[in-house]
Amino acid sequence: MPLEIKVLGSPGNDNAMFTRLDTGQNVYHFLMDCGEACLYSIGKGLIQEIDHLFLSHCHMDHLCGFDGIFRHLYSRPRPFEIWGPSDFIFMMSCRFRSFAWNLVENKQGEMRVHQIMSNEIHCASFFCRESFSKKHPFPSQKFTGRIIEHPDYTVDCVILDHKIDSIAYLVSETNRININTDIMETMGLKAGKWCADLKNNALPDDTILAIEGKDYSIGMLRKKLLEMKKGGKIAYVTDFILNEKNHSKLIPFLEKADEVVMECSYRDSEIELAKKNYHITVTEAASLAKEAHVDRLTLFHISDRYHQKDRLEMLKDAQSIHPNTRFPPHWQVIP
Fold first, then answer.
1. Residue ranges making up the domain that contains 217
2. pTM of the model
3. 218 shares its domain with 134
């Protein structure tokens, strides 16, 4: 699947999620949250290629790794897009200005901050050449759930209750039309400009294509050779309480996702502690995944009170509800 994820960080410590989308023609990189030390495993080169940073909320364990990203991206020629909850523009502007800037007058660099609220999305840019001291606001947009509509992918989100807003994100790869090269070979056809013509909706089916001295109906070729490849869907969900309102938002949001990365802060025996801290238990996560018909559930963001034996038992509890559940492979929690 061209849409791939890597959970960053170790069990009991800060976590994040790095996402890579390779369409065959373009490659995009996304980061969900940026806890402390999470970026060490992906390296400077990939950090500099991150297109969007999606923050669930601004608790310290989800944001305190931002300075490491900022250090590598503050003067990048193309804008760095950052998304977060209410008051986010103010919070990020304070962070930008917390450094001394005296050698940047001629440098490029733009931080574009998006603030997601229940009814609106506000956006403002901050420029390196101005020492990030001025806010340049964009017109506000209505928030409908979808925050990015790109030819190769979309990003949707829902705002959850963590006693503050906590945002869950869903990245969906756009469905792609491919040419079945095996059938093309059996027909004795070689790739050429005509392949692009097949995907050109402006050309009607009765168009005749001349391929290697023979005439073919483009409609016939489309029926034989074109096939739709469904795009992948990956969700990132962390820091929320499983109350009725959050439940009603998440089930349709996660429906039939290929993979969901979801917190499992507590064992079921400590559900009252989970509720007190506005988190969920491991079996609540598994039950959500099962109800939403999620293909694979990856558990993360686990309390440091648990050791490897506890994590193994938690995984077994989750798999008894949703069999295709795992912890991140590098955590090495294997039944």
1. 177-229
2. 0.90
3. no
